[in-house]
Amino acid sequence: MRLAAAELVESREILPGQWLQAYHAPGLATGSRAGQFIHVRPGDFSGMILRRPFSLNTTDPATGTVTIHFRVIGRGTAWFTHLRPGDRIDLLGPLGRPFEVDARSRHLLLVAGGLGIAGVRMLADEAIRDGRQVTLLFGAASAREVYPSNLLPDEVEYIVATDDGSLGHHGFVTDLVADYEAWADQAFACGPAPMLAALARLAEGRRARLGVAKLGRKRGGGKADPVGSPAARRKAFLQVSMEQNMGCAVGACLGCVVMGTSGVPQRVCREGPVFAAEEIAWEGGW
Amino acid sequence: MRAKRRAVTSSQGVAEQKYPSAQKRPAARPTSSLGVRGSTVRPGAPVPAPVPALDVDLSVDLGRGLVLPNPILVASGTFGYGIEYGEVVDVDRLGAICCKGTTLKARIGNPPPRVTETPAGMLNSIGLQNPGVDAVIDRYAEIWARWRVPVLVNVAGESVRDYVEVARRLDGVPGVAGIELNISCPNVGAGGLQFAIDAGAAAEVTAAVRRATDLPLLVKLSPNVSDIRPIARAIADAGADALTAINTLSGIAISAGRGRPLLGNIYGGLSGPAIKPVALRVVYEAVQAVRIPVVAIGGVTELADVLDFLAVGAVAVQVGTAIFADPTLPVRLVDELAGECGRRGMTSYRDLIGTALPKKAERPSSKGVEYRP
Question: How is domain B61-352 classified at the architecture level of CATH?
Answer without folding.
Answer: Alpha-Beta Barrel (3.20)
